[in-house]
Structures are given as C-alpha cells and as structure tokens.
C-alpha cells in the first residue's frame, strides 16, 4: 500500500488529510475534509485517513462508502422516526379495545375508522412494529452503525495515538481558537503550563512545544454507545427465537392445581386464593375527592396467593406425578414471582366464576317440593350421568358454561362457567324414555309441559380465577448489558470533552491554539484562567459566525 | 393548615415569584451597561426562591399523599415546569445569560398553568402504578425534558435575533407561527382563569367505548362530546360535536378548551400586534441587541448534550424496567412509548446532523424547536388524539 511521508518524518496512510504526527495539511488531499479555501481546518476526525474517503472504486467500496455516510444514517433514523409515528395514528392490533365491534383487525379498522382505517389495515400498519420492513429498517440502521463506526474509529484512534506535542505552524494558525503574542518569556510560558496542569490537563513537551490535553477518552463515547446499540439490536433479534423467549398465559381457579404451560410439565401452580382490593374510606380522607370524581371503584391490589410445585424426578410415567412444594408466594401486580428462570405475573382475573352447582329433583305436582334426591355438578368437569338415591338417573345432554341466546339459538359465549345452563335428560327408574328439562339461572323450562319430574337449583358455590403470564426471557441480560453500555457511551461522550491547547514558540513569539470537540465556552474559560496576568493574549474565535450573520442576514 | 394546603400555596407562591423574576430579567435587557446589574441579581435570587417554594410544594405533596407526586397529569406537568426552572438555573450559572431567564421562566409558567387544567386531587395509585420505578421513571423524564426545553428557549432567542425582520419571508412567518403558539398557551391560562372566576359549569353525557360517562365542561361548549347529550339546562348549546377520530379520554372537552385557548390567544396576539404595529418577532428583536449568537447556539446544544442521556435513561431505560415489572414486557408499542422513541430518534438525528453535517446556528435552532414540538405533542397531542395505556397521563 502506498504511504505518504510528511516533512516531519512521519509516514501516514493513504488518504490522510492532516499529518497524524504534526498536523501539516497534506497537499492534494485537502478536498476530502473540505479544507480548501477555508481559513480553518476541519478537525472532526483529526484529518485521518478514512477508508470510505480513500477507496471508492470497487463494489464493496461503494457499499462501504454508502453505509459509512452519516447522511445516510440520519436518513435511516428519520425514516424510522416517521414510520414509528405512522403506527400511532390508530391503535395497533394488540390494543384493539375489548369492547370493540370486532377484535378481528380485518373488520375492526374499517368499521371503526372508515376508508382510512381500511387502508391502514391493508398497508399492514396495524402491526407496523412487527412488519418485515420495519425490522429491515432497524437492521439497516444497525449495519450503518457498525460500518460508520469502524470507518472512523480506527483511523481516529491512530491519529490521536501518533499525535506529537510539536505541531506544524500551519496547523496551529488554522485552529478555531488562536492567538499570537510577541516577546514572551520562558517564565510566563511555564506559568501557563502549570496553570493548565492544575486544571487537570496532561502536559507533553517536545523542544519547548507544549501540548496540554484532557478528556481524550470522551472521543470514544460515540463508539462505545454504538456498541451498546448493536447489542440491543442483536438482543431484539434473538428474542424472536422461541429458545430464548417464552410467553404463555394460564388461568388458574381458586383451589385448583394446574400445570404451568411452557415448562414441559415440570412445574405446577396451585391458586390458594385470589384477592381484589378496592380503595375505600379506610384509605384516608385525602383520596376522597379523587375517588368521588372517578365515580367508580378504584382497584388497590390484585393478588394471587400461589404455591409452586415441581415434579419429582422419579415420577413414574403415566401415574399421577409426585409433586414437591418449591415456593409459596403472593403474586401481585408490580411484584411478580420468580422461580428457576421463570417469572409469573399477575395479569388478569375473573371474579365469581361458578364452581359447583347442586340440583334437587321433585315431583312436578308436589307443592312442598319434597326432595327425591340431589346431585352436584362440578362445572369445570361435569360428569355424563348422575344416579340418584331413589333410582332416578340424570344425564347431561347439553352444557352451556356461559349461556346466551344468539338469534334464538342457545350457545355458550365463552368456555368459562359464568352463566351455566343445562339440558338434562331425566330417566325415571326402570324406564328408557327420558324427560327433557332445561335448567339455568332463573330458567327452568319443560318443553313438553308433561314432565313428571322437575329439577331446581338447590345451591351453588363460586370462586375467582387468576390470569397469570408465564415468562422466561434469556435475552433480558443482553438488553441490560446493551443499555448499560449505551448509557456509559453517551455519558462519556456528552459530559466530558476532549480539549487540547497547543503552545508553539516561534522565535521570541508564542502562538497559542486550542481545540475541543464540544463546549468551546468551557475551553475558553480554561485558557482565560491559565493566562491571567501573563502577557499572552487570549485566543480569538476565528470562526466567522458573526460574519456569516452579516453576510446572510437571515434573508431567504 | 394541612400539608396539602401548604403544598398548593407554595405552588402559587412559586408561580408569582417566577412572574416577578421575569420582570427583573426583562429590566436587565434594556440596561446599557455590560456589567451585571442589580436587577439581574434580584431576578436570579427570586427564581431560586421560587424554585425552593416549588420544591416545598413537591415534598409536602409527597408527604401528604404517600407517593412521589408524579402519578397523574397535573403532578407530572408541574414537575416538568419545575425541572425547566432548575435547568435554567443551572445553565444560568454556567453561562450567565439573563435573556435566557426572560424566555425560560414564562415558558415554565405556561407549562405550570397548563398543568392546572388537570384535576389536582390526590388520587390513589392503581396497582400498576404502585412501584418505585414509576417515580424514578417519571422524575427523570421530567428533568430531561425540562433541560431539553431550555434548548428550545435558546433556539428561539437565536431565531428572534437572527431572522431578518426588514421584510416578510418564509423565516419570519415560521417564527411568527411559533410565537403565536406560545400566545395560544397564554390564551389558555387567561381563559381558564376567567371561566374559573365566574365558575362556569356545563355537564354532558356521552358514550366512551361502551360506558355512559359524564363530563364537566368548565368553559362554554363550542364543541360538544362525540354523540353527547347536554345535562345542564341553561348552558350554551354546542355548535358542533367532536369528531369520532379523537380517541383520547374526554377528547371533546379538551378539544373545546383548545378552541377557547386558540381564540383567546389570537385576541391577545392581535392586540399586541396592534400596539407594536409590527410582527411580534420584529418587536422582540431589539431586546436581543446584546445577545451573542454563538453563545446562545452553544447553550442550545449544551442543553441537548445534557438532556439526551438523561432522556434515554428516564424515558426509555427506566420506563422499560418499570414496564417489565408491572406489565411483564419492557416494551409494548403503546403510543406514548412510541412517541418517547420518536423523541429519542429525533434528538439522535439532531446530534448527528450537528456533529457531522455542521448544522450549527440557525439550522440547529430550528431543529431545537421541532424537538420541543415533539415533546409537547407527546404531552398534549397524544392525550387528545390517541388512545393508550398511559391514560393516567
Ligand atoms: C438510533 C440510532 C443512533 C443513536 C442513538 C446514536 C447515538 C449517537 C450519539 C449520542 C453520538 C454522539 C453525538 C455527540 O457526541 O454529539 C453519536 C455519534 C456518532 N454517530 Fe451515532 N447513533 C445512532 C445511529 C448512527 C448511525 C446509523 C450512524 C451511521 C451512519 C451513526 C454514526 C455516528 C457517528 C459517525 C458519530 C460521530 C462520531 C464522531 O464524530 O465523533 N450513528 N451517535
């Protein structure tokens, strides 16, 4: 590879704009950083040789150049921004309200929002953040991030490592902060040097030339934060795989024990009790107004008192598994239960579901309704038939756990016993022809009006049901690491700055120049402090911002 | 006096102090002297005392309610205004720029006045909000957007000085629109106070989803709730109904308030223009004589440099931690969450443009205004237009 040798003796890589060691502009490369016809040098990457600016002919070069452009990066970010905003115009699929006309997105959007809603659905915006193109957009940002960072980090690192205290005069004169002072004594220079040291600048010297530098590590901030972002993007990708991420939901009734889905039958949960608490007077005078305004009950706590069991290793296949208690806990909102890598969250509930229902049989014409026998139906696991004491046999013909009439047809709204209703067949002793009877809450219908026996609800019991989400997420640590690295990187890059001051003796005179990657105000204060009561002139800001104002004057 | 009474008195006190302090900052602008004058000292002292008063509001309210007072819209927006004042105080001591106070304090007051639109009763926390992470998340967010707002204030100052007012241009028009928007917020405060004073009230009933709900208008209804019926007999009849696509809670009432604010703002704006006989931007420009554009630009950028990491921490990371604990997922694409992400994307783009494309000065100033607009949209617009989980907010 060709190299460029500077007059100071340092050998620079091809494409270098400012010599890594002395900063002298390298002829023929000044267009790269736009230094031509400019008073000031572009110091953003120290004039180091970046691949994207040096090699531009092959196909790979072109791809590299494309993705290493910050302009492209910003466009990607802006496109992601606009796309994200589009997704908030109407609710996303998962936020279609429970009371909506239909929870089927194909129906919901058009029915609720008309033609625009239909279009929204057809364009796939109802699941925008899960769409392939949104993923690709994020992936492109990731690619851009990596290439962009590599393109700059390596040469920048080289340049900052190779820099020397002694700089070329042109470099000094073409810094934004610059001053020249005539007839300066050694003592005064030493004074300034010591004062800079006191302000925690690191001093290096070379033949009377001084470089005072601090906060160089802040230059790595952007690269560190980009690494954090990459880790987060990778974590998001991994989360799509079922290996590392489990998401299940389980309903458990009070008093019931059930296997926890997603655990390969290894763990069981028992719901001892579900508790719903509401705010009331006992919670203090202070909430009175707010509660009154709300007008409805405000929940205070949702809680499941649960026992977690684990299957014993030696359980025999097919037999009832032997279980051992591993944890007993209260699962509340904001207080999930963790065990062996799984997490259970209090996510939903159903109050007052029917548990059992008892029925009584009597003669239809018996005004005393004397019992001929009773039976109890377990509403989650009803038996097919029930034999009564006096030889009566009751068979369940139809069971509607959550009964409703839909256009004259009986059906069950859900599979949960919230409003149970039955069609019973009653076989009198020694008979084969049954009587038909329909019984539900507040209903007792004899379709033939000739029934000899009548069934009535004698008793029932109720219980609550807890809805719990089951999660296992091995990508979480990765997200946490990514976020932490990102934060370290941004803070490193934002709350510290890389400041340098060069003192350049020239005969009896002294040239003073300074550079920082941000916060010029702070740098100027440092210098002011360092040069007080010395002859040395305060640096001037050579960036002609005020000039520009005069030139353009804000005319459009 | 109960703690809660002390608390609200302190909030009033802070508001009044900020108002007076603004006057003193205004006085520093006119003075010819370069030296720091007495009015500047009084201005910053009053600001600090005002901030302490607001801190007392915060602490006493915390003690009274038993949870960090950032759990509903009133508390959150008030905290936002407070954070803005804090950010101003910090940046004042770094840069000593008084004109910043002249603009930052009124914007903070506008924000606090806006907070008062929401019910200020102490509300009990529903289970999902019963987490320390809520307080940590919301406080950090308030702090970060308070700081980011100072970027907007500095950007605005930059533009008022920079934009050529000698004849009308696209720039002057946009600047005027921005200033007019501030008038709308002032209009909101004025009209709220007026109708509050005459104790106006009109009740409506409407269907929210599947529930019949009642809503109380505190301003005459120009726009009624969607499919609503009036319950108060002799109240003004709405001229029209809120469109169905406004999905937020109580959208009709909020939209009505917006219209009233707009009208009042317009009246005040027109009056000011009549008196000044020129664009508001042009009238303000002479106040900026002493302003150093470079310094203002630097402040605007510095505010983003400080605010961006804080926003990432509070608005995204802490939010995610809380969501993970409360809702079993750290990210759920809820509109408010998405808009936090948009804000974050925007400021990331801002930083990259500034760093690599050299968008300093004017361009950067316009961007800082767009950034603030996004923040305000998340505060005002999302609640009005979009339905979501953060319905407390
Ligand atoms: C959402 C995604 C991104 C975020 C949050 C982000 C964040 C940041 C931050 C905070 C900085 C430091 C800015 C400063 O110090 O003022 C930075 C710098 C930088 N970013 Fe990004 N970035 C993102 C995407 C990208 C992409 C896609 C590219 C590639 C085109 C890129 C390239 C750069 C470069 C080149 C720097 C400046 C390094 C320097 O000049 O010292 N970033 N980024």
From TrEMBL, chain A:
Keyword RNA-binding: no
Membrane topology, as annotated: Multi-pass membrane protein
InterPro entries: Cyt_c_bgen_Ccs1/CcsB/ResB, ResB-like_domain
One annotated Gene Ontology cellular component of this protein: membrane
Pfam families xrefs: ResB
ResB-like domain: residues covered: 70-527
Designated name of the protein: Cytochrome C biogenesis protein
Native source organism of the sequence: Cerasibacillus terrae
Highest classification ranks of the organism: Bacteria, Bacillati, Bacillota, Bacilli, Bacillales
Automatic annotation (TrEMBL), chain B:
Main location class: membrane
Subcellular location as annotated: Membrane
CC per GO annotation: plasma membrane
GO molecular function terms noted in the UniProt entry: heme binding
Highest taxon listed in the record's lineage: Bacteria
Alphabetized InterPro entries for the sequence: Cyt_c_assembly, Cyt_c_biogenesis_CcsA, Cyt_c_biogenesis_CcsA/CcmC
Domain Cytochrome c assembly protein: 76-191, 260-390
Ranges that cross the membrane: 12-30, 42-64, 76-94, 99-118, 138-160, 172-198, 258-276, 299-325, 337-353, 365-389
UniProt KW keywords: Cytochrome c-type biogenesis, Membrane, Transmembrane, Transmembrane helix
Single biological process term from Gene Ontology: cytochrome complex assembly
Bilayer topology: Multi-pass membrane protein
Protein name, entry field: C-type cytochrome biogenesis protein CcsB
Name of encoding gene: ccsB
């Amino acid at each position: 590879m060709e190299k460029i040798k500077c007059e100071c003796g340092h050998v620079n890589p091809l494409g270098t704009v400012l010599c890594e060691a002395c900063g002298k502009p390298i002829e023929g490369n000044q267009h790269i950083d736009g230094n031509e016809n400019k008073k000031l040098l572009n110091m953003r990457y120290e004039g180091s040789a970046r691949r994207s600016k040096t090699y531009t002919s092959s196909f790979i070069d072109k791809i590299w150049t494309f993705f290493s452009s910050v302009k492209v990066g910003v466009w990607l970010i802006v496109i992601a921004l606009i796309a994200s905003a589009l997704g908030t115009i109407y609710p996303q699929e998962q936020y279609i309200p429970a009371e909506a006309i239909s929870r089927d997105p194909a129906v919901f959007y058009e029915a609720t929002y008309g033609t625009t809603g239909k279009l929204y659905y057809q364009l796939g915006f109802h699941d925008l953040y899960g769409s392939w193109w949104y993923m690709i957009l994020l992936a492109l940002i990731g690619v851009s991030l990596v290439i962009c960072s590599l393109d700059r980090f390596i040469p920048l690192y080289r340049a900052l490592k190779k820099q020397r205290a002694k700089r070329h005069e042109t470099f000094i004169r073409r810094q934004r902060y610059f001053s020249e002072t005539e007839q300066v004594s050694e003592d005064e220079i030493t004074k300034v040097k010591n004062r800079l040291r006191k302000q925690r600048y690191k001093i290096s010297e070379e033949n009377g030339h001084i470089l005072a530098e601090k906060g160089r590590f802040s230059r790595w901030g952007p690269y560190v934060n980009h690494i954090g972002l990459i880790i987060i993007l990778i974590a998001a990708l991994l989360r799509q795989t079922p290996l590392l991420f489990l998401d299940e939901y389980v309903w458990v009734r009070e008093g019931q024990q059930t296997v926890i889905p997603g655990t390969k039958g290894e763990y069981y949960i028992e719901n001892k009790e579900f508790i719903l608490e509401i705010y009331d007077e006992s919670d203090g005078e202070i909430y009175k107004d707010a509660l009154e305004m709300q007008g409805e009950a405000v929940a205070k706590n949702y809680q499941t008192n649960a026992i977690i069991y684990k299957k014993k290793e030696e359980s025999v296949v097919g037999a009832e598994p032997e279980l051992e208690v591993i944890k007993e806990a209260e699962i509340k909102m904001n207080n999930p239960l963790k065990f062996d890598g799984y997490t259970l969250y209090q996510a939903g509930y159903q109050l007052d579901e029917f548990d059992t229902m008892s029925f009584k049989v009597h003669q239809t014409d018996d005004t005393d309704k004397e019992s001929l026998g009773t039976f109890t139906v377990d509403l989650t696991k009803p038996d097919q038939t029930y034999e009564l004491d006096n030889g009566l046999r009751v068979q369940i013909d139809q069971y509607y756990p959550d009964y409703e009439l839909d256009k004259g047809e009986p059906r069950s709204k859900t599979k949960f016993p919230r409003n149970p209703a039955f069609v019973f067949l009653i076989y009198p002793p020694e008979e084969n022809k049954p009587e038909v009877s329909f019984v539900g809450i507040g209903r007792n219908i004899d379709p033939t009006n000739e029934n000899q026996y009548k069934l009535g609800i004698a008793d029932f019991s109720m219980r609550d049901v807890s809805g719990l989400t089951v999660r296992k997420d091995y990508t979480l640590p990765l997200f946490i690491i990514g976020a932490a690295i990102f934060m370290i990187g941004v803070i490193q890059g934002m709350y510290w700055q890389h400041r340098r001051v060069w003192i350049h003796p020239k005969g009896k005179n002294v040239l003073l120049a300074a550079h920082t990657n941000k916060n010029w105000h702070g740098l100027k204060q440092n210098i002011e402090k360092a040069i007080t009561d010395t002859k040395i002139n305060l640096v001037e800001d050579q960036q002609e911002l005020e000039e520009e104002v005069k030139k353009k004057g804000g005319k459009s | 006096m109960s703690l809660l009474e002390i608390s609200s008195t302190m909030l009033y006190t802070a508001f009044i102090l900020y108002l007076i302090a603004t006057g003193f900052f205004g006085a520093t602008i006119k003075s010819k002297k370069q030296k720091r004058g007495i009015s500047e000292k009084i201005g910053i002292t009053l600001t600090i005392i005002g901030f302490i008063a607001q801190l007392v509001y915060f602490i006493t309210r915390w003690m009274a309610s038993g949870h960090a007072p950032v759990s509903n819209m009133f508390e959150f927006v008030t905290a936002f205004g407070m954070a803005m004042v804090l950010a101003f105080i910090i940046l004042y001591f770094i840069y000593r720029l008084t004109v910043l106070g002249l603009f930052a304090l009124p914007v903070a007051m506008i924000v606090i006045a806006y907070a008062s639109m929401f019910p200020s009763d102490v509300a009990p926390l529903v289970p999902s909000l019963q987490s320390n992470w809520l307080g940590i998340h919301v406080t950090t967010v308030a702090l970060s957007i308070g700081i980011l707002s100072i970027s907007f204030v500095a950007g605005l100052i930059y533009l008022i000085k920079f934009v050529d007012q000698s004849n009308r241009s696209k720039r002057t028009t946009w600047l005027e629109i921005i200033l007019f928007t501030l008038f709308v917020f002032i209009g909101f405060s004025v009209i709220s106070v007026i109708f509050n004073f005459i104790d106006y009230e009109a009740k409506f009933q409407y269907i929210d989803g599947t529930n019949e709900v009642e809503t109380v208008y505190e301003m005459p209804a120009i726009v009624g709730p969607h499919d609503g019926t009036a319950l108060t007999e002799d109240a003004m009849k709405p001229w029209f109904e809120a469109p169905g696509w406004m999905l937020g809670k109580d959208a009709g009432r909020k939209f009505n308030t917006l219209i009233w604010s707009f009208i009042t703002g317009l009246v005040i704006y027109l009056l000011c223009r009549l008196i000044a006989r020129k664009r508001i931007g042009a009238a303000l420009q002479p106040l900026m004589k002493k302003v150093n554009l470079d310094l203002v630009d630097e402040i605007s950028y510095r505010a983003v440099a400080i605010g961006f990491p804080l926003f990432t921490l509070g608005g995204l990371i802490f939010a995610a931690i809380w969501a993970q604990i409360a809702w079993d997922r750290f990210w759920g694409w809820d509109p408010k969450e998405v808009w936090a992400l948009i804000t974050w994307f925007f400021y990331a783009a801002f930083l990259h443009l500034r760093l690599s494309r050299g968008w300093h000065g004017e361009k950067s100033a316009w961007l800082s205004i767009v950034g603030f607009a996004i923040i305000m949209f998340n505060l005002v617009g999302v609640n009005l237009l979009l339905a979501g989980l953060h319905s407390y907010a």
